[in-house]
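Consider the record:
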Amino acid sequence: MSIFAKPVADISAADLLELLTENSVENLRLEFKREITAKDETLKKLTSFANTMGGLVVIGADASSGDGRIVGLPGVDPKSGYKQTVVQWCFDGASPPLDVEVSDAIVLPSAGGRVCYVLGVRESELTPHFLNGRKGVYLRTNEFSARYDAQLANENELRHLAQRRQIVRERRATLIQRSRDRFDTFVKQKYGELGKRPGGIGARFDLSIGPRFPAQPLCGHDRLLSIVPAKRISWRQVGFPRTTGGGFISQHESVIGLRPGSSFSILEANTWGVLFYASEIEREAAREPNDIQGIHSYHFVGQLLVFLEHARLVLDELGYVGPLTVEMKLDAIRGVPWITFEDRMAVTGPASQLDDTVTFSLESTVDELINRRDALAVNLLRYVFFATNLTDAVSAKDLEAYVRGGYSYNTWGTPTRLQI
C-alpha cells in the first residue's frame, strides 16, 4: 500500500485510486471519511492515531458501513484554507499540540472538480494527547466493535502513554546535562590559557531554549552546521557568534561554538532543537583601586538578550513553531556582588548570601520568542534578581530599564519601544 510509503504532501490521486483497486479496508492506521468532519470529530481521530501507532485519514473516500472497505472516491467540494484550519485545530485543541500533515486538495479524475484531502499524524512520543475542555484521551482501537474507531483510553492505557512522554522529558534533561558537562570540560581544558583568575572560572550562567518535548530531531547534522554559525548578530562591534576565539566544532548530535561571546563562553545547538548558551559573568577587579569585582548587571543582561536573539533566529530557520521550555542556571554566585549603576557610577550591590547555584525554568512559545523577546527577558530577569537578592530591581519599570541597559551594552542603540 504505497500511501504509507511517502510523505502526505506527495500523495497523489493515483495513490488513492490504488486504495480503491486493492479494496483496502480501514485498519489501525487508516480511516476513510465521506465528508469533511467538524473540529471535535477530527481531533478525536487524529489524537487517537497519535496516541496509538500513527495513521492517515482520507477525506472524500466512501467506505462500507459493515466492514470499513473502501467502495468509492466521490470526493468533497474544495474547502478554502482547510489545511491551515486543521493545523490550527491541532495546535489549539489538543494538549500537547499535534504535529499534523495535511495534503493539498487532491483532484480526482472524473469527479466533477471534487477533491480528496489526506490528514496524517505519526505515532507520538508526547503522549497522552488530551482533547482540551475535559474531552479525554482517545486511542485507535476495535475493542468495542468490528470497526476501528477512536475510543477513550482506560487507566492502564493512560499510564502506558504517560511513560512514553516521560522518555521525552528525560531526553530533554539529558541533552541539557550533556551540554553542561561539555562546558565544564571546555573550562578545564582551556580556561587557564586566558591567564585569568588563579582560582579558575568565576560566577557563570547558562541558558537553554528548545522544544518542550523534543520527540524527534528537527534537522540533520549537516544542516545544523550550515545554520548556526551563519546566524550572526550585530553585537559590540565584533558580532555574535564571533568567528575568532575557538570557532565551531562538531560533536555527537551537536554543533558547538567555542568562545562565541565575551568572557569565557560556549554555544551549542543539537539536532533535537535544544540550544544551549553558557558564559562566565563575574568580572575581576583590575589594578585600578576604584574598579569593582562582581557581576556587571548590564553585561549579564546584554548576554541574555543576545542569546535569546540568536535562539530566535535559529529556531525560526529550523521551522519549529511549538511550545518552548527555557531553563537557566547560575553557578558559583555565593558572595559575588552585583555591579549596579547610580548616576552612571558603578557601585557594589547585593549578592546571594546562601545559595551558590540557582536553576529555574519557564514555559514559553516560539511566537513569544519571535514577537516578544524582551518580555521573555524581563520574566527571566525577575526570577534571577529575586533568586540572587537584587530585590530592588524587580519592579516592571526597573526591569525594563535593565533591558534598555542591555541594549546599550550590546551597542544596539536605544530602543524607542521594547518588544513587550
User: Anything to note?
Assistant: The longest strand covers residues 323-331. The chain has two domains: 2-153, 166-191+199-409.
